[in-house]
Amino acid sequence: MKLLDHIEECLIAFLMAAATLTIFAAVVHRFAAGIPFLHPIMSQIHMGWAQELCIYMFVWMAKFGAAYGVRTGIHVGVDVVINRLNASWRGKFIIFGLLAGATFTGLVGTLGAGFVWEMAGTDQVSSDLEWPMWIVYMAIPLGSYLMCFRFLQVCVSFVRTGDLPHHDHGHVEGLEEDTTDQQREAQDMNWFALDDNLHPHDIGHHERKAASRQEKSQ
Asked: Which residue ranges of the chain lie beneath pLDDT 70?
């Protein structure tokens, strides 16, 4: 399973880096072509394919990035009503939502696979790169099936542990929070957080509550 996670992350990172470098090279090429003494050189370099390639890379990145989002809990969820339910009903609705997501993405993957199969029987190619279009459209079934698998993976994990993947947008991996700095702690305070399970607290809040509970137990 970790191998699949690494492949997924490496593919997304590669597509992001490659698309960024391609766009940068295309912009530099277009700028340099407007300089008189560089124009003869730049006119011999054809980069009309750059825009098409970037579009395809962003499509693949979006499909696999969506699956990555399900695994890590990045996707935004409207759970105001769900969080007000008792634990039993909340769990049932969460499982229903995860299974619904798996069903939908599975259907999209199946329909996409059929479309790609029919496309492979044609000679249709892309306009600039002249790649077979069925290869480009492979992003639909592959990304959708991976997303379906991630929904099922999260569902099984929730049934076993009762926890959902959660992503803290303020946390930087490899960078630890300095909880000893009182000024930093005050800056991290979320003054709009409420104790109603509807408004998430900042990391410092949970650390302070844990420290307070530990002091009381001692």
From this structure: 167-214, 216-218
